[in-house]
Write a sequence for this structure.
């Protein structure tokens, strides 16, 4: 399977030259254009890159920056640091943001929920700064958190200078890094209530919002995520969509027109959905228990320490095989998470993934009294 994927990717690269890249849609065998300075297609569950062109070139992301802003706000909501109905007061600085905005006025109060909606749907620069100041005290302090979180996600091509993507010297990222932060954002169910909105309103219905990501309206299975554009960045998008249990992330940076970014993202998504499928190789039924020597219980339950989902080319699903190996016996004490074996997933005989099989619970060691009591119990059973 590894060789098959390598050959497929090699073929794509022969066809693809940015800009005006071309990749074969595996379902229709027609050529589709990808016109951008850089682009990338990633499967969200496994993080597998299916297509890439100039993916590590440092470029301006424009408002696609707000993916990281939304991630930090979402994480703060989930941790309880802030609440969706909490009021945010707009500063003079936030109200003065240019570009796309929802026209916040200094001193105006709006809930975190409405401001996050304004960022996700209408790409409000003023709303992004208002949230940043509310969460971190100042935009600069919030940007420090953005760069720290980027480092934690392995975004080595990225340096943020602001929270909204307005042009700033040194404010750069890459198609690959955008896919990484998009993947992380989409792991939070809360944000899906925002990025998937087509039309909505704020200020009790007085101000209408329409999603800048037109794929939400017309692309089957679209789930998000964020657009961006400036004169220097060109037209950008991180687009996500889900079909048949598989979610893809298509990143397009530096297209010449808005229409080209959408058709390019659609072409990448079509390529992924047409050529690949996500297979769950988790064994059916209960996992085996492992015998325990000198433990307060005679067996220990097991669990898989990770996902067994793998990406395969369409038509290769019947080539997936699973082999489960466990230790014959283990001696107490045991802690939950101790390795007791492994599950190996192969495709056409080649190993694609190995997931550890671990103890599902703690098992304490028997005391001397416990050992004597167990021996006595076994002797009594034999006599009976």
């Amino acid at each position: 399977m590894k060789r098959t994927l390598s050959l497929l990717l090699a073929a794509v690269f022969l066809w693809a030259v940015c800009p005006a890249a071309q990749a074969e849609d595996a379902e229709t065998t027609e050529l589709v254009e990808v016109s951008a300075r850089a682009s990338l297609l990633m499967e969200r569950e496994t993080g597998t890159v299916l297509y890439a062109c100039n993916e590590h070139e440092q470029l301006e992301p424009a408002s696609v920056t707000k993916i990281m802003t939304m991630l930090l706000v979402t994480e703060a909501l989930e941790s309880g640091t802030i609440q969706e109905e909490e009021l945010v007061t707009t500063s003079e600085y936030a109200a003065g943001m240019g570009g796309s905005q929802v026209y916040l006025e200094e001193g105006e109060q709006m809930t975190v929920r409405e401001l996050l909606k304004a960022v996700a749907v209408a790409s409000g620069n003023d709303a992004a700064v208002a949230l940043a100041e509310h969460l971190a005290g100042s935009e600069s302090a919030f940007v420090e958190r953005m760069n720290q979180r980027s480092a934690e996600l392995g975004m080595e091509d990225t340096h943020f200078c602001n929270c909204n993507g307005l042009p700033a010297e040194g404010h750069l990222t890459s198609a690959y890094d955008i896919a990484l932060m998009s993947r992380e954002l989409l792991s939070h169910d809360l944000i899906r209530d925002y990025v998937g909105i087509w039309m909505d309103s704020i200020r009790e219905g007085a101000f209408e919002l329409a999603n800048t990501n037109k794929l939400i309206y017309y692309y089957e299975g679209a789930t998000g995520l964020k657009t961006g554009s400036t004169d220097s960045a060109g037209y950008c998008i991180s687009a996500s969509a889900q079909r048949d249990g598989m979610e893809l992330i298509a990143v397009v940076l530096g297209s010449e027109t808005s229409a080209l970014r959408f058709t390019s993202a659609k072409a990448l998504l079509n390529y992924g959905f047409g050529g690949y499928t996500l297979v769950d190789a988790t064994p059916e039924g209960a996992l085996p228990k492992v015998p325990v020597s000198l433990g307060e219980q005679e067996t220990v339950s097991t669990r898989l320490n990770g996902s067994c989902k793998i990406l395969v080319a369409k038509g290769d699903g019947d080539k997936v095989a699973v082999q489960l190996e466990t230790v014959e016996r283990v001696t107490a004490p045991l802690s939950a998470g101790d390795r007791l074996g492994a599950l190996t997933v192969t495709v056409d005989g080649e190993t694609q993934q190995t997931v550890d099989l671990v103890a599902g619970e703690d098992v304490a060691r028997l005391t001397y009294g416990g050992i004597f009591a167990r021996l006595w119990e076994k002797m009594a059973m034999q006599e009976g």
The radius of gyration is 26 Å. The CA atoms of residues 22 and 32 lie 5 Å apart.
